[in-house]
Structure formats: structure tokens, C-alpha cells
């Protein structure tokens, strides 16, 4: 049976429009880092570097090399971890040029170093991608988090974060990182801003 993250991992990827406490286990990702305005071409180029690798692994069952324990699945959604430079933190308003980001696509558990090497080989033979050598394969464990579904433009996320912050305080928790994670359930190129669906998540810990 094909693994559908929307169906089989609802707790992680399909939250409701109210905050919830979740524990995020260790997960494998293709990641790439960058700095600057996400509206710039460089950001799009970095995204376009991740997808060929993700699909190279997804389609390996049709090649000579099939990873051990391979199963059919839906490619996971794009995610991003967002931060600001020290200069950006000093400013009263958000300067998108001072944003720091790590964008990523999760990979299934069966993916190992050999599978990754073969994916890189496949992509290098088919495409010339400017940022391919900047992509890393790594494991990330977020642990205890608060998350919530945000519906609407990315520029309105502060409204959802305010609700999350109030929930965090009410549940005797504290945010432990200034970074936050976004999981993009909608394709911003095809969906109107008011209909965009984004999972917002940040790390928390119990107050001492």
C-alpha cells in the first residue's frame, strides 16, 4: 500500500486551526541553506534543487538499483526553518533580506547514504543545477513542539504565532528557539494567498 503522509501522518502534517503539542521524532531530510528574500530567484533555485533529488529516490523502484525496504510513497512537502541575522534581529520591522533559511524535503526511513549517492548521480546526469553541491542529507529531531495550521498569506503568520504563544504560556511551556519551522501544504504558485495552508511549528520545553 502506498504511504500517503496526508493520511498516515496526520498528527505531524495535518493539524487543525488551533494549537497542539506534538513530539517530532528524528527524521531524514535533503536540506539546503540560504540567506535573503524568499521572493528572490535564488530562493526558487534552491527549492528547484531539492525536488529532483526527492523524485530520483521516489522513482528508484523503476531502476536497476532498488533500495532495501523500499516502499511506494507520496513525496513529502517542502519545509523551511526560518531565522534572522543578528542585524535583522535589531530591526523593528522584518527585513526579508536579513532572513536565514534552511529549506528541506523529508525522506523515508529506508533512505541511506548509498541511496543518496545514487540519487545525486542520477540528477547530475540529467540536470545542471547551480546549488546541487550545497544540498546535504541529514537527520533532524525537533522533539517537543507546538504547532498549528495557518491559513492565509505568509505575511499574516504573526496572527497565528500570537495564538500559539498564548497556548504555550497557558500550558506552562516556553519557546526554546527563535527559529520556527514552516511546512507548505499548498503550492504558492497555484493557490491564492488567502487560501494558502502552512503548518507553523516551534520547539518548546516545560517551564522549570
TrEMBL record:
Regions that span the bilayer: none
Domain GyrI-like small molecule binding: 18-198
InterPro entries: GyrI-like (IPR029442), GyrI-like_CCH_Lin2189-like (IPR008319), Reg_factor_effector_dom_sf (IPR011256)
The name this protein goes by in its record: GyrI-like small molecule binding domain-containing protein
Protein species of origin: Jeotgalibaca ciconiae
Amino acid at each position: 500500500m502506498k504511504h500517503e503522509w496526508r493520511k498516515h501522518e496526520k498528527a505531524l502534517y495535518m493539524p487543525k486551526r488551533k494549537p497542539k503539542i506534538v513530539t517530532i521524532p528524528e527524521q531524514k531530510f535533503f536540506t539546503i541553506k540560504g540567506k535573503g528574500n524568499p521572493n528572490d530567484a535564488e530562493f526558487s533555485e534552491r527549492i528547484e534543487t531539492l525536488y529532483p533529488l526527492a523524485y530520483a529516490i521516489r522513482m528508484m523502484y523503476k531502476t536497476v538499483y532498488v533500495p532495501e525496504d523500499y516502499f511506494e510513497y507520496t513525496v513529502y512537502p517542502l519545509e523551511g526553518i526560518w531565522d534572522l541575522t543578528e542585524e535583522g534581529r535589531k530591526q523593528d520591522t522584518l527585513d526579508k533580506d536579513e532572513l536565514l533559511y534552511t529549506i528541506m524535503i523529508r525522506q523515508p526511513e529506508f533512505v541511506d547514504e548509498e541511496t543518496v549517492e545514487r540519487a545525486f548521480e542520477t540528477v547530475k546526469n540529467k540536470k545542471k543545477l547551480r546549488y546541487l553541491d550545497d544540498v546535504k542529507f541529514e537527520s533532524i529531531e525537533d522533539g517537543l513542539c507546538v504547532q498549528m495550521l495557518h491559513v492565509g498569506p505568509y505575511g499574516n503568520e504573526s496572527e497565528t504565532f500570537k495564538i500559539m504563544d498564548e497556548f504555550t504560556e497557558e500550558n506552562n511551556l516556553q519557546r526554546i528557539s527563535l527559529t520556527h519551522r514552516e511546512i507548505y501544504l499548498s503550492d504558492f504558485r497555484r493557490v491564492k494567498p488567502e487560501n494558502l495552508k502552512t503548518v507553523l511549528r516551534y520547539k518548546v520545553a516545560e517551564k522549570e
